[in-house]
Amino acid sequence: MKPTNLDYCQNTIEEMFKSVAPMIGIHVMLLVLEYSLWKTQDLYDEVKLITFSEKGVSLDNLKELDEEKARLVAHEFMISIITTLGRLVGIQLASKLTEQFQILKEEY
After folding, report:
1. What is the dihedral of CA 91, 97, 99, 102, to 10 degrees?
2. CA–CA distance, 91 with 85 (Å, rounded to integer)
3. For the whole model, what pTM was predicted?
4. pLDDT tens for residues 19-33?
């Protein structure tokens, strides 16, 4: 089965969570996710379907939406996380994360 854009976003967010949470702390990471969820809600009310905890982030509930809408919501959420982390930890780290995610994207 071919991975979907939603799978790409899920994997990217998981990688971000695993690599960044140890650096900034799990509670700060959860605040970043909460802020990103709130920010994305300005554009997509469906972002409420995204769940997260100390164990990670799940986009599974977005599968209830049509594929294009799910992709847009997940992508906007992911970009919001990257932007927020960029402001929090600096542009250099955000650039490095973006490079890593481009490599991940090429694998899909």
Report:
1. -130
2. 9
3. 0.78
4. 888 888 899 899 999
